[in-house]
Specification:
With 124 residues, the chain is α+β, with helices and mostly antiparallel strands. The chain has helices spanning 2-6, 10-16, 23-31, 78-81, 109-115; strands at residues 7-9, 35-37, 40-41, 48-50, 54-59, 62-68, 85-87. It has a five-stranded antiparallel beta sheet. Strands 1-4 form a two-stranded antiparallel ribbon. Strand 2 (35-37) and strand 3 (40-41) form a beta hairpin. Helix 2 (10-16) packs across helix 3 (23-31). The longest helix is centred in the N-terminal third of the chain and has 9 residues, at 23-31. The chain is elongated and about 85 Å long. The mean pLDDT is 85.
Length: 124
């Protein structure tokens, strides 16, 4: 029975650690082959993971690499979930924000008048 306590389903652990909002989303990621356990693709959501395993998966626009530090009995609050893993993901610089308006784009009415682009209404 101690063997059961040493391992947990990978989809359940990802859900307990709050990487995915629902367990079914975690299971879909694993089933689609988007999760690696110790470098090899997880074949199915029921694959067991243990303390010390390294998981690699995509989350949003980044690839996450985490080492499992503990298994949990329940899906607790975020502060408790953060104690379940060590994040080995490389810190990336944030992508630049949208550039500010620098006079590019469509001219406004005043600029169109200055360029002579405003149509003149010819009354009949």
């Amino acid at each position: 029975m101690s063997d059961h306590a040493d391992k947990m389903r990978v989809d359940k652990w990802l859900w307990h650690a709050r990487f995915f909002k629902t367990r079914s989303l975690a299971a879909k990621q694993v089933g689609a082959g988007h999760v690696r356990v110790n470098g090899s693709k997880a074949s199915k959501p029921s694959q067991n993971v243990a303390v010390g395993d390294v998981l690699t998966f995509s989350q949003g626009h980044q690839v996450r690499v985490v080492r499992i530090l503990a298994l949990s009995e329940r899906r607790g609050p975020a502060s408790e979930a953060q104690t379940l893993y060590f994040d080995m993901t490389e810190k990336q610089d944030k992508p630049p924000a949208n550039p500010k308006y620098e006079g590019k784009g469509r001219p406004d009415k005043k600029e169109r008048r200055a360029l002579g682009l405003t149509r003149v209404w010819e009354g009949h």
